[in-house]
Specification:
Blueprint: H1 16-22, H2 27-34, H3 37-46, E1 52-56, E2 59-62, E3 67-69, H4 73-76, H5 85-96, H6 109-120, E4 126-132, H7 135-150, E5 154-158, H8 167-170, E6 189-192, H9 197-204, E7 209-214, E8 217-218, E9 223-224, H10 229-240, E10 243-247, E11 271-274, E12 286-291, H11 292-299, H12 316-331, H13 334-355
Helix pairs in contact: 2-3, 5-12, 6-12, 7-11, 9-10
Length: about 375
Amino acid sequence: MNVNSRPARTADSLGVVAEAAARAEETLELAARHLDPSLVDVLGILGFDKQYTSAEGSYLYDAAGRAYLDFHTGEGFASLGHNHPDVREVLEATLAANLVDGVQLHYSVLAGMLAEALSQHLPAGLDAVFFASTGAEAVDSAMKFARAATGRPRLLSCGNGFHGVTLGPLSLVGDEFFKEGFGPLLPGCGRVPFGDLERLEAELRAQDVAAFIVEPIQGRMVTLAPEGYLQAAQALCRRYGTMFVIDEVQTGLGRTGRWFALEHWALEPDFVLVGKALSGGYMPIAAMVTRRDIYQRAVGTLERSYVHQSTFGRNRLSAAAGLATIRIIERDRLLEHAARMSAVLLDGLAELEQRYEMIKEVRGRG
């Protein structure tokens, strides 16, 4: 696409979009003044302090119409590319329908449809869904549900793991850099080295660990688990009565060439956490998916039906965008495309590794 082929603007009676277009050159100035000036400085140091005016597909565009290939995609949230037209069409149709929204004391049929669609792409029995607005909130939900369902106090994660920066998930994060200045964090949270089964079993043996929360591929440094580690970790959790939680916020929804990375190892976890790519880059939405028996033990009685909620977690727009995203992945065979591109990239980068000593190691999947 070029700058001249963009769709015509729709009505903007309050002038919000028109003013945004007119003030585009103030983007970084406004961010420095009212948002995060240190991040603006970092963008300048990296040479990323461009004045982008639009985005479509895999490209960002500046005012001159120059295209920039976006390899970052918001750390994976725009996995369909920016501003996918089919997701936008579904959102516009949802707004036009004036549907009942699924927040607080009401349910949207779209939330139930999205939960059903997610469950169909996960191992059998994972069919109880709690929708949230962010991946960190989904992680926090699993922490709470695991403690409530097991009656156990402790939570385990892995060194170098990343699960979010709100206070609960931050207590699981394996990099101390993110924690500095924010303590004391949540008690009862411990870590074991990623890939070390002996250390994991030593922690689980006391049978006081509610959940072991692990990324199938660690997102911080794209670290793959040793062969057989995840299957053995799951077996240890089963042996000692600990919930096995797979954090797929980074890896889920096709990014590794499967719907979820857990499929590469035929895992059957007690929880799967989903986020980032779930709305095709449009709306904030994440999900905690578990078994119905676990959900009921945690919050399933009449008295506890309202003790864990998320104000906008199951809203109609996020659910509609999620459904559209899943259908686009299915229709356009994006899982197969990710697997093909994985082979192309890994083979090509491995060849470059032989030629350039600055490349130390090539690793990844999808």
